[in-house]
């Protein structure tokens, strides 16, 4: 099995293995060929989200992905590369603070039923792997875009029956947030937990309109259109 890995340069590695995960392959290379090869890993069972990389231009968890001959492995996009396949995810994590993506202090102290928990069960399964930020074309051109995972997290708490401060949550994501998303769905396609940030953003938009907000892109378009023919 021979694969290429994007380090400072594209390097090729070969090992006599078959039917193994990418993470097992990387460990084999590190132990037998080059102990300077750097990558992140943790639980080795698709739960911690720390081994996200790109294979053939698509985000995967190295511990879940079975490698194929000639695969090309790269670090996640839209994050600073620290070394080889290790990237700095701090910027993407910081959007949870920007979006205040947590339960408000003054939330109601009520017990949730199983039905209540089901409402945001999927969103609660996020493992913070950052694959969605890597795949997001808006984040790649606007590094202040709050982005898929934090917007999903806002929806997770907004849809929680205990949340009392919905207005603050909706206010916080109006700028560089839900209206900047193009609804391209790239985030959904790469999420290992089957979370659709795109769908969550659509729900946040609906909720925003109920709260009296409008899509600023439509307003800007309407005010910039003067009705004259475009020759
Ligand atoms: S929403 Fe999905 S892709 Fe994004 S960080 Fe969470 S688990 Fe990863
Ligand atoms: S749907 Fe929105 S958040 Fe998801 S990748 Fe596209 S632009 Fe980014």
Plain-language structure description:
This protein has 231 residues and is of the alpha+beta class. The protein has 2 domains: 87 residues, Ubiquitin-like (UB roll) (Roll); 129 residues, Orthogonal Bundle (Fumarate Reductase Iron-sulfur Protein, Chain B, domain 2), CATH 1.10.1060. The chain has 10 helices and 7 strands. The strands form 2 sheets. The chain has a 5-stranded mixed sheet with strand order 2-1-5-3-4. Strands 6-7 form a two-stranded antiparallel sheet. A hairpin with a 2-residue loop joins strand 3 and strand 4. The radius of gyration is 21 Å and the shape is elongated. The relative contact order is 0.12. The site of one iron/sulfur cluster has 15 residues, from helix 5, helix 8 and helix 9.
Give keywords.
231 residues; alpha+beta; Ubiquitin-like (UB roll); Fumarate Reductase Iron-sulfur Protein, Chain B, domain 2; 10 helices; elongated; binds iron/sulfur cluster
SSE layout and pairings?
Elements lengths: L1 E5 L3 E5 L7 H11 L19 E4 L2 E4 L10 E3 L5 E4 L2 E3 L1 H9 L15 H6 L11 H5 L1 H5 L6 H11 L7 H7 L13 H5 L6 H14 L5 H9 L7
Helix pairs in contact: 2-6, 6-9
Quick recap of the structure?
The protein has 231 residues and is an alpha+beta fold. The protein has helices at residues 22-32, 90-98, 114-119, 131-135, 137-141, 148-158, 166-172, 186-190, 197-210, 216-224; strands spanning 2-6, 10-14, 52-55, 58-61, 72-74, 80-83, 86-88. It folds into two domains: 2-88, Roll (Ubiquitin-like (UB roll)), CATH 3.10.20.30; 90-218, Alpha-helical ferredoxin (Fumarate Reductase Iron-sulfur Protein, Chain B, domain 2, Orthogonal Bundle).
């Amino acid at each position: 099995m021979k694969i290429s890995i994007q380090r400072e340069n594209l390097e090729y590695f070969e090992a006599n293995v078959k039917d193994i995960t990418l993470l097992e392959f990387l460990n084999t290379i590190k132990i037998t060929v080059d102990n300077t090869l750097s990558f992140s890993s943790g639980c080795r069972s698709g739960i911690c989200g720390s081994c996200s990389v790109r294979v053939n231009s698509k985000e995967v968890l190295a511990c879940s992905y079975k490698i194929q001959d000639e695969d090309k492995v790269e670090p996640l996009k839209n994050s600073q590369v620290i070394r080889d396949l290790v990237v700095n995810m701090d910027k993407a994590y910081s959007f949870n603070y920007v979006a205040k993506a947590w339960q408000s202090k003054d939330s109601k102290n009520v017990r949730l039923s199983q039905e209540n928990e089901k409402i945001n069960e999927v969103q609660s399964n996020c493992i913070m792997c950052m694959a969605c930020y890597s795949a997001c074309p808006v984040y790649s051109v606007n590094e202040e875009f709050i982005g898929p995972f934090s917007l999903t997290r806002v929806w997770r708490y907004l849809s929680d029956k205990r949340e009392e401060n919905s207005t603050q949550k909706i206010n916080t994501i109006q700028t560089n947030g839900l209206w900047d998303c193009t609804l391209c769905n790239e985030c959904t396609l790469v999420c290992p937990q089957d979370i659709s940030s795109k769908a969550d953003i659509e729900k946040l938009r609906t909720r925003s309109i109920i709260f009296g907000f409008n899509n600023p892109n439509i307003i800007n378009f309407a005010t910039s259109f003067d009705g004259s023919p475009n020759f």
